[in-house]
Every structure is written in C-alpha cells, then in structure tokens.
Amino acid sequence: MFQMMAASMRRIRPDVQVHLLTLGDTVVPAGIDCDAVFRGEIDVSLEQCWERLMVEETLCWSRYVHSDLFGAPTVFVDADLLVQKDPFALLSNEFDVGMTYSLDPLARSMINAGVILVDGRNPDKVRTFFDTLASLVSSYDAEEQRWNGDQRALDEMVGRDTIAKIETSVRDIEAGGIRC
Question: What local confidence, expressed as pLDDT, does residue 165 receive?
Fold first, then answer.
C-alpha cells in the first residue's frame, strides 16, 4: 500500500520528499520508494504496539516533528491513501495544522486523521499540537488506544461543536493557540 501512496504522490508532485514513519525495528522492504525512514522509538515490543496502535501512531508523529527530518510544509497521509490532487496547494491558507472533516452529525469522528497538513511556519505550535494529540490519545481507555483514539483526540482538540457549525469548505479555527 505504501508504494501505491508514494507513487500517487510523486505522480502529482515529482519533487516531493516522501518519508516513511514507522516504529522501532519494523522491517522496511528493500527498494521501497521513500527518501527517508523515520523510526519512532518504542518502549514496548512491536507486538504490544498493536494493542495501542493509536498511541504509537501519535507518538511517532510527535517525535517526527521534533526530529531533524521535519521540514515544512509537510503532509501526513495514511499509507492506504491515493493522492489525486496536489495537497500542498492547500497550504496557502496560512494555518499551522490542516485536517479533513465530515459534517455528517452521525459520524463517529468528524475529523479524519488520515490526512493532516502542516504549514510549519510556526514549528513550536506544530510540535505543541502533536504533543497534545499524543498525550490525549495516551489518556484514553484501551479500546481507543487501539483504534480511533487519534480521531477522537482531534475532535476534542478542535471541538466537535465547532466543526458541526462549519458552513464553508475552508474554515479557520483557533484551537489552543494553533490555527487549524
């Protein structure tokens, strides 16, 4: 899946730097199409990571934005995503962190953690955002640490009520001093 996502991104933006974010000793196949591999440190076994997958995911993002590999602009995408349009074109809206959302009031989560855009002009705010996200997910019960905790935390950080009031396709929300 990662190869398809990377190929779709490079089709749209041939000059893009693709970084694979993974955990600890995860085996990365030789010849995978990425410019860098970031290995988030883990304090449990890889098997135990599966039991708290959303904690490990958000901790990895947080550690990445604190690393030397982090450079702006950055688009975090799930490996199963196929890119159809240039996501970097969205970074002209002068926000620190951008997310995709659903206005479906019945949706379990209104914000999708599968695509997160980072402007990066304010790296300290970006780091604070991801640190807060990881901390929230780490505080949830085991089920949400395993699945959907990342999206619940994003809903909480931005405010589900605020998201529900969105009337346009682009919305500027102030969330804890971070422009979303």
Answer: 59
Identify whether the C-beta of residue 40 lies closer than 8 Å to the C-beta of residue 20: no
Alpha helices in 13-118 (DSSP H): 46-49, 53-65
pLDDT digits (tens, 9 = 90+) for 91-108: 776 788 888 877 777 778
Kindly list the domain boundaries of the chain, sorted by start residue: 2-179
pLDDT for the residue 175: 57
CATH (one of 1.10.10, 3.90.550, 3.10.590, 3.10.450) for 2-179: 3.90.550
What is the rounded CA–CA span in Å between residue 134 and residue 66?
13
In the chain, what is the straight-line distance between the N-terminal and C-terminal CA atoms, in Å?
29
Q: Give the global pTM.
A: 0.87
At what angle are helices 123-138 and 53-65 packed, to 10 degrees? 160
